[in-house]
Amino acid sequence: xLKRGIVISPPFESLLTGGIRCGGEPDPxxxxxxxxxxxxxDYTSNNLVHISSADIDYLETTDALKRTRVxxxxxxxxxxxEFFIAAQEAALRENQRLEPGAWTLxxxxxxxxxxxxxxxxxxx
Length: 124
What we know:
Distance between the termini: 19 Å
Radius of gyration: 14 Å
Strand order of the largest sheet: 6-4-1-8-9
Number of strands: 9
Mean pLDDT: 78
Low-confidence stretches: 113-122
Helix content: 25-40%
Shape: globular
Structural class: alpha/beta
Oligomer: single chain
């Protein structure tokens, strides 16, 4: 049976004045929703930001979650959270290389100070 996985990033929002605000740890309800439809979550990590939680740590011990480590080099523009998205895309490419067709990408959308919209899933 083919394992299905989803690559997610820490919650963040683009600020209207420029820059980003990290939203802290992922919502446990969202993690549960992902695991309802996918077998494994890849919660990317990078050398700029590392966010964890008790839920993330627990899911890692059960193999329901893994963390692909992405290392950035040189100048990084963080204006609208591009490095979170770049890390997700790098993790998706690595997962697709290892398990073609089994992984997809999720990105929660935050616009200014409005409530978050539903996640958008991008099929591979």
